[in-house]
Amidohydrolase (Glacieibacterium arshaanense), 618 residues
Amino acid sequence: MVGDKRRLREGGRHPPTLGKAEHNANKESALHARRGRLPRRRYLSQPRAENDLFKDTTMTQSKLVIRGGRIVDGTGADGYLGDVLIEDGTIVAVGAVGATDAREIDARGMVVAPGFIDIHTHYDPQICWDRLATPSLEHGVTTVVMGNCSLSLAPVRPATSGVEGGKVKLIKMFEKIEDIKQATFDLAVPFNWESFGDYLDHIRPGLGINVGALVGHSAIRYYVMGADSQERIATDAEIEAMCELMRGAMAAGAMGLSTSYVDIDEDGRPVPSRLADMREKIALCKAMAESGRGVLQTVPYFIDIEKQLENIEELGDLSLASGIMCSIAPITYSPVAPENWKRSLAKLEEQRARGAKVFGQSMPRSFDINIILSETSFLLYPVRKWDMLMKLPLAERIIAFGDPVARPVLVEAAERRIMPLLRNMAVGRVYAPENARYLGRKLLDISAETGKSPADVMLDIAVADGLRTEFQIRGAIHADPEIVSIILDHPLIHIGGSDAGAHVTQFCGAGDTCDMIERYVREFGKMSLERAVHRMTGEPARDWGIRGRGTLAPGQAGDVVIFDAATIARGDEIFEDDFPGGANRYVRHATGIDKVIVNGAVVVDKGAYTEARAGVIV
């Protein structure tokens, strides 16, 4: 489309989000009142105290009965018609429930399933101002695991300590790797904590969704070693200090540890976790295992299959040394390297054969992504000359990308490093009237028409739009349903890798749960509904140690999603400006989801958020 039209949800409340100044919020309220719509709720530019924002919001429905739905209980067993009774947040009966004084929900014609579990998200910053982790909840997700890929917001040294290990480095890594802006952090993430337990205490009030939190290896390493964490291996004393932090985090409620084999920081250097040797990794895994639980999540060096296979082998060693479960994400199919997925699955099977507990993660959606030069893009990291310009303030960036003297150098660099991306790139949203003719067209086609190279065409269009053009890459990776369905159904693969809450100006990771049912169950017929639900509920709950969740059975938590199997869908991506300070992100709004219930409280009702907040740390 020309311009930036953003859809607002109608007919319900919106979660609290930080926005621009109060007069802008008031102006928007008046505008949408005239249109008969409910505006998005915004914070002011200076947010209120945390206690004011989230106090007195925790609530559960004391009694709730869901009647007449098709119960798909998360075990993989065949579905059946029946009722579910929830009292004080816990399921007390499943099957035929007699007369009761509980609030009744009519689920006839609907599927009643356990709330979905998303094991790979990055909501660590967002949960500070958005206790609903939008939009994951409206896609039926009742539990998210965050702190993946070695990044968490704790432990962190206070600014007053005068010791390296503070928030500045964490913010820069999150900004570079997860696409959360510095201004958003400044406005909405107070860093009034130091330990991981302090952070959990900060986010606990008013949670609308259940949260499992991993401790980031890079955060722990930087807390202990400061700048040296990116220069050398740790000493024995430093490793013991990290292990003490790990023990403290597990005692406070952490789910486990995350690390990375591939990520780079704001200066293009390996993140701290990549400097760790096996002594350190084994010690941390053993410290975690002392709690009797814990998982290790990793992101592999996926740009080199041989290194990725080495990463999987190392995870096998770590699992055998400590007894913990290890998870590596993502395992995907690419037509550029069509055998790599098979080699990765075979390596996972090797680890299982030697007694290690190592799983991969994969997602149902194709790896579709957008590049907007006014935002950030990890796809441009390999193009050093472009990546350097992406760090400039927007006004300077526009001038730099439009410089005719620099243009040949920029074009050559792009076509040398990312030509496969340029071949698959099409023009999405535009702003300048003269760019309207390019909507939906591939850069290659425009290149043939104009006689200019694809990179030249891209820069011409982007500069005319003030760099706000949306360039789309669709169906290039993980897009063959025949192959992807094999990966998704493999017993050593968990449904994960959504990245919800990260890369927010490049794609929306939320919605994989709906996509799984919409396409792989309903459209492609590659998996039964019961199998798909089990893969997103009972299975991750069991393997990730999320106790008391994932199935519909007496004694389990009252986490439930009610949906129409014939219409459930993830929805289209929408570019909105509802992040703190008016920052942008992509979102998706699900269809076909009737209700989402968290610990017995209806949090989403027919697409609208309620005031109920009953989420917990799991």
